[in-house]
Amino acid sequence: MRYINEDQVLEATKNEWSNIINDLERSFVAKTITPERTSIQVPNAGASLFMPCWIEDANVGIKLVSVRPENAKKGLSTVPATIILLDAETGATEALLQATTITLIRTAGLSAIATRHLANPKSSTLVIFGAGNQARYHVQAMLAVLPSIKRVTICNRSRQNADKLASTLRVEHPELEFSALATSEDPEATQAAVSEADVICTTTNSNQPLFPGSWLKEGAHLNCIGSYTPQMHEFDAEAITRSRITVDTYEGCLEESGELIQALDQGIIRKSDLLADLHEICQYSKSNALDKIRRHEQDITLFKCVGTAIADVSLASFVLKKCEQLGLGMTI
Q1: What are phi and psi of 174, to 5 degrees?
Q2: Is the distance from CB of 214 to CB of 189 less than 8 angstroms?
Q3: Does residue 278 surpass a pLDDT of 90?
């Protein structure tokens, strides 16, 4: 069995965005078995989730991920995660991977798949809400599928964190224009950024919509990945009613996307307004049928993602193969 730590995951995925996105997409058109995730609410600590999956021609695997907000005070990850991969034929354990970075990368990769198929391929302006690691990975993933991007704006409650991320990204991508703003301090600049954005990614844990849906320009594409409980909301009802809505999985979003759950409960939308999941998006692309989702250039498209074990096991399998090629990891 090979043990792979976070540093080795980073090494195995460095400069691999194109291959990662393509590999994830292949997993969504393959045969899979993905039972419902199991959750344990640990008293006075947080939730622990167990997410199993089988992917044809890949591995059987399970991700164990916990949400522990108090870990920040201890200098630990607030979302520690581990993935166990089994040989599909023998059932033997093949690998144990630290998976916090895998979780970040796979989420951005799913947004990239949706963006590649739904966004305007000539998009030049990108707006990111949030300034953490997920925001950084989303910038990288968007640039991998939209090389036309020229300008990126980081919007965050804290101007300091937005400036820090923008500075890091300027070093990584000196050919692009990066700016940062604090949403609470400069609502007019936030409105201008949203109104001009071709692509918007929301990567926050907000319980309130980040901006009015009326600000969205025609033809924009949104990737919304931050909310994962019925109480959390990154976008409002107007954004929902103005958009052509897609999801990573129907089951996950109907249980965990606060925005969609509330809109359905209030009769703002029906389940039939969720036009496609990632499997269908990938299938429509192969059959030149994406106009079932984006009918006109003016349509706004919204991709809501709460995460799926298909992506976790797919990316973990990719990382395992790369580590075997590079001689990374420890046999235990």
Answers
A1: -65, -15
A2: no
A3: yes
* Domain span(s) for CATH 3.30.1780.10 in the chain: 2-102+310-331
| Res 175 pLDDT > 90 | yes
The residues of the chain that CATH labels 3.40.50.720 are: 118-307
Residue 100 clears pLDDT 90, i.e. is over it: yes
- Grade residue 263 by pLDDT with cuts at 50, 70 and 90: very high
pLDDT of residue 97: 98
Residue-level pLDDT at 277: 97
Name the CATH code of domain 118-307 (choices 3.40.190.10, 3.40.1440.60, 3.40.50.720, 3.40.50.300): 3.40.50.720
| pTM > 0.90: yes or no | yes
Dihedral angle sign, alpha carbons of residues 16, 202, 130, 320 = negative
What the block records as the tokens of 251 is 């089951």
Distance CA 312, CA 107 (A): 9
φ, ψ for residue 285, nearest 5 deg? -60, -40
CA dist 31 and 13 (Å) reads 25
HSE (side-chain half, CA atoms, 13 Å) at 74: 9
Q: How far apart are CA 291 and CA 195, in angstroms?
A: 24
Per-position DSSP letters for 186-227, written without gaps between them: -HHHHHHHHHH-SEEEE----SS-SS-GGGPPTT-EEEE-S-
φ and ψ at residue 224, rounded to 5 degrees: -120, 110
Q: Residue 108 and residue 45: Cα distance in Å, rounded?
A: 27
How high is the pLDDT of residue 195? 98
pLDDT band at 281 (very low <50, low <70, confident <90, very high): very high
Q: Where is 263: in which H helix or E strand? A: helix 258-265
Q: Are 100 and 172 in contact (CB under 8 A)?
A: no
Instruction: Give me the architecture of the 2-102+310-331 domain, per CATH.
Output: 2-Layer Sandwich (3.30)
Name the residue among 60, 123, 121, 112 with its Cα closest to residue 282.
Answer: 112
